[in-house]
Amino acid sequence: MTNLDLSKPTSDAAPAGTPLLDVDDLRVEFRTRTGTVHAVNGVSYSLAAGETLAILGESGSGKSVSAQAIMGILETPPAVISGGGIWFEGRNVLEMSAEDQRKVRGPGISMIFQDALSSLNPVYSVGFQIGEMFRAHRGMSRKEARKRAVELMDRVRIPAAARRVDDYPHQFSGGMRQRVMIAMAIALDPRILIADEPTTALDVTVQAQVMDLLKDLQRETGMGLILITHDLGVVNEVADNVAVMYAGEIVERGTVDDVFTRPAHPYTEGLMGSVPQVEAKGGRLQPIAGQPPNLARIPSGCPFHPRCARRRLGAEAAPGRECSTDVPPLRLVVPGREAACHYSEEVLGVRAP
Amino acid sequence: MTDQQQVDLRKDEVEAGTTTGLASPSVDVTNERQNSLWSDAWGELKRNPLFWIGAVFGLLFLLMAIVPQLFARGADPRACSLSNSNQKPSAEHWFGFDQQGCDYLANVVYGARNSLIIGLLAVAVVLVLGVVVGAVSGFYGGWVDSLLSRLTDIFYAIPFILGAIVVLRSGILGRGVVAVAIALAAFGWMTAMRLVRSQVIAVKSSDYVAAARAMGASNGRILLRHILPNAVAPVLVYTTITIGVLIAAEATLTFLGVGLQRPAISWGLQIENGQSLLRTAPHLVLFPSIVLTVTVMAFVMMGDALRDALDPRQRA
Amino acid sequence: MGRYIARRLLLTIPVLIGASFLIFALVYALPGDPIRALGGDRPLAPAVVAELRDEFNLDDPLPVQYVKYLGDLVQGDFGTDFRGREVIDTIEQRLPVTIRLTIVAIAIETVIGIIAGLLAGIRRNGFLDNLVLVSSTIVVAIPILVLAFVAQYVLGVKAGWFPIAGITEGWYSYLLPGLVLASGSLAYVARLTRTSVAENLRADYVRTARAKGLPNRTVITRHTLRNSLIPVVTFIGADIGTLMGGAIVTETVFNLPGIGRAVFDSVQAQEGAVVVGIVTLMVFFFIFFNLVVDVLYAVLDPRIRYD
């Protein structure tokens, strides 16, 4: 993987087969007075057009930070991208000038956030904020941009768009506000949309509507969708592939069907055991023991080992696979499935290679 | 709280120059967890050089007010000889002499006492008025609040110094130390009232007060045990800064000729006397001005440091 | 919005009346007989005294005196001083000086305060930030009395850059007193802007603005400064009223013939009508600008549109 940047073409036109987005060994640290927080520790994934990739993890697992690194909106300092690369349509975003990076945001990669109320500026009308996309990137006039904003609001199914375009964010309901965010994000037909917990703050019925809207929009435009969430239900419904993050690393990756039916990492297994399943009515929910790790002091070896029910320490462990000392690499366990656990085969119930 | 209330509170805080408190109307300082607010604040304070500079000068000022003999280098402020009139500072007499030929260092040092007494007395009156009126107004709301708030507005609308001038000139109170302190407090309590009122309203609508009420706590108990302790932090910040402001205001009133009068020793009188000699003997204005400024600054610095230490939003 | 303003306007009436009555009561509780004082060493004939007392309603009980005064005031009659000069003439002559001084002071605190606060807030803990913090602490702590003398002595007497006193050099004479008058507010505006900008820079909607690919300048001006200025603008608005009533010391030290100086002289001379008239005017300005601020708040922050 180290010679990746040599193999990447630098032109704008990416040849067929090149993924829309390629994240390679991304590392992000927060350098604070009290120490260095390792938020993202070598994350790699890629996204194709039309694909929906879910990034699943608890808060503090690094899923949002990695997304913000891709967008180039991390606060630096205290954040530092200490390694890796982010290739968007074949160009390394991290090596672009600030101005070129800015031009990617919006028409190239776009993002929606969890809390639409705080993410929209309270002092401007929603039409103005949607229209800003056209004014900043397409140089449209205010009037023209407003017209396009109405069209977009229609497109995300906000009722009476023409009447509501001059309303302010606080005048909308939570679901409608999130639609405004979505309208803003898809204004310039981005190639990639990153949705950071888009439905967490919403009522369950509204959640489904917003997710349906995102799926419909994706079908229409063929954009790639990165869905950051801790909601297994949402992942199950809409995602093609899933990457499970823990302590700033991807610990398991595969198709949603595979990962959800037969996890290969004890953490994923734990996640599955901690949510109610329709089939397993009456059974006990099993929360994962212990606390998420402190990212300033990530445990040695496998970062999950202090909480792991399957850990093997000392003499129990196979040589080179001691959970508290040997770091498990993310490796192909069975075709189409990667996991970062020394004992994935055991978790999966297959024979070790 | 309604939006309008929140805006009002926010505005009051802005005018009071402090943003402490509102940040956490949902956290109760009376419970265990929040006791750490004060120990955290102390930890923060200890590391703030501004606080230490302020504290050292504040202490120096306090000593000067209590035992001025220690600082006067043996000179008596009232032992004067006209032959020394307006003499420049020298190694023997650090601050020189004033127009009457009195040792200026001794005079400036002895001036601290009146400043301190007036500052403390006035701030005490400000606090009593502010806390009582503010707590009653915020807690009972309704017409009581309307009435007291309008009353506060009336005092607020009259310029601070001007109000004090009129009171002092009316002669109702006389012209002594107590009179000056009361005149200042009479037109200076409104911000404290609004601050306490804001806090009380913010805290009153919080969950833990609702919980206390649900458990049958009486109004008085809720006010004393839950609401007022939460108002302590912003009021403490405000009080510290206000002592400095009041000391400066006393000097101003006295300078304008409506405050303390001879033979009282006061920085305001010294600056007033020196004013006409600014060109020939600038040291007469300079020294009391410096000491006055450093004193006021000491309180402002301590107040600033306290605010930084007590404001949870500063500690991200 | 119209109803809101009307309601606020109604609320201000008792405050205006209350404040002017308070001053009225204090002023006319002054000891000594102002009429007798007028005569100086030469005692006035009892008939003359009686006539004067009648003219100034001095024999009525205080509330009655006040109501009569108020009745005149509503008709624009501020009354006359004991020398027969119309108070309104004094105001007309003195007010422009105070207004000019206030304009200069507000301009200084707005321009310098906001620019310094913005730069400090953007680069927190940078050199400029620390400079703003330290200098604002110092400036806030220097009593205006001391600052006035320091400015007068250093910039006026020693350096000779500014006129020392008076208003003979037009707007230029107002620059130094304006700076002195503005100093405290200037420091506060800088601090308020700094805190507000730093706070807003961390806001989610600023992150959104960056995610939208807006140019940095737009992110700062449109999405940070615009929001940050809400508390700053309201403070400055209310400060206009405060400064107009707070210029006594500045006007005294720099010998500016404004209303602050006039009211102070009148207190000393026991000219009750002038004191009450000017203080009522100051209270009016104070209340007026606070009302403007309330309306401004609603204009600046759509969340607070009153209905």
TrEMBL record, chain A:
Cellular component GO terms, alphabetical: plasma membrane
Keyword Signal: no
Keywords: ATP-binding, Cell membrane, Membrane, Nucleotide-binding, Transport
Topological category with respect to the lipid bilayer: Peripheral membrane protein
Positions of the ABC transporter domain: 21-272
GO MF terms held by the record: ATP binding; ATP hydrolysis activity
InterPro entries in UniProt: AAA+_ATPase, ABC_Ni/Peptide_Import, ABC_transporter-like_ATP-bd, ABC_transporter-like_CS, Oligopep_ABC_C, P-loop_NTPase
Subcellular location as annotated: Cell membrane
Keyword Transport: yes
GO-annotated biological processes: peptide transport
PANTHER family listed in its UniProt record: DIPEPTIDE TRANSPORT ATP-BINDING PROTEIN DPPD (PTHR43297:SF2), OLIGOPEPTIDE TRANSPORT ATP-BINDING PROTEIN APPD (PTHR43297)
Family: Belongs to the ABC transporter superfamily.
Name this polypeptide is given: Oligopeptide transport system ATP-binding protein
Lineage: Bacteria, Bacillati, Actinomycetota, Actinomycetes, Geodermatophilales
UniProtKB/TrEMBL annotation, chain B:
Compartments, as annotated in UniProt: Cell membrane
GO annotation, cellular component aspect: plasma membrane
Location (main, coarse): membrane
Keywords assigned by UniProt, alphabetized: Cell membrane, Membrane, Transmembrane, Transmembrane helix, Transport
Classification via PROSITE patterns: ABC_TM1
Gene3D superfamilies, alphabetized: MetI-like
Family that this chain belongs to: Belongs to the binding-protein-dependent transport system permease family.
Protein name as annotated: Oligopeptide transport system permease protein
Species of origin: Geodermatophilus saharensis
UniProt lineage: Bacteria, Bacillati, Actinomycetota, Actinomycetes, Geodermatophilales
Automatic annotation (TrEMBL), chain C:
Membrane topology: Multi-pass membrane protein
UniProt GO cellular component terms: plasma membrane
InterPro entries (alphabetical): BPD_transp_1_N (IPR045621), MetI-like (IPR000515), MetI-like_sf (IPR035906)
Primary residence: membrane
Chain segments annotated as transmembrane: 9-30, 99-119, 131-151, 171-190, 229-254, 274-300
Domain ABC transmembrane type-1: 95-297
Subcellular location: Cell membrane
UniProt record, GO biological process: transmembrane transport
Top-rank taxon: Bacteria
UniProt KW keywords: Cell membrane, Membrane, Transmembrane, Transmembrane helix, Transport
Cited CDD domains: TM_PBP2
Homology family: Belongs to the binding-protein-dependent transport system permease family.
Protein name: Oligopeptide transport system permease protein
Organism: Geodermatophilus saharensis
